[in-house]
Amino acid sequence: MKTIISLLFLISFTSLSLAQSTLSGKLIDENNEGVAFATVHLKEVKKTTLTDVDGNFEFQNVKNGNYTLQVSFIGFEKKEQTIKYPLSKPLEIKLQSSTTRLDQVTILGKSEATLLREEAYAVEVIETESFKNTTVDASQLLGRISGVNIRQDGGLGSNFSLSLNGLSGNRIRTFIDGVPMDYFGSSLTLNNFPVNLIEGIEVYKGAVPIHLSSDALGGAVNIITSKKPISYVDASYSYGSFNTHRASVNTQFHHNASGFTARIKSFYNHSDNNFPIDVYLINEETGKLDDETTEVQRFHDAYTSKMIWGEVGFVGKKFADELMVGVMYSDNYKEMQQNPYADGTPAFPNGEAYMTEEKLIYNLTYHKKNLFFDGLNANSYIVYVDSKTNTVDVSPHKYNWLGGYQEDYHITTGEMGRKSDLYLYQENLLGNFNAEYSLSNHHNVAVNYSLNNLSIKGEDKFQPQNNTQFADPNDVVKQVLAASYTYSVFDDRWNTIVFGKKYFYDLSAIESSHDGTTKEDFIYKDDANGYGIASTFKLNKIQIKASFEKAYRFPESYELFGDGLNVIPNQELLPEESENLNVGVRFGTSPKKQSRLMMEVNGFVRNTINYIRFESRMTRSHYVNDKKVTAKGVDLSLNYLIKEQFNIGFAGTYQDLRNADPASAFYEDRVPNEPYLFGNLTLSYNHQLPRNQRLTVTTTSRYVHDFYYKWPTLGNSNTKTEIPSQLTHNIDITYTLKEGKYNLSLLCSNILDTKVYDNLNQQKPGRAFSFKARYFIHN
Question: What residue range is the signal peptide (predicted)?
Answer without folding.
Answer: 1-19
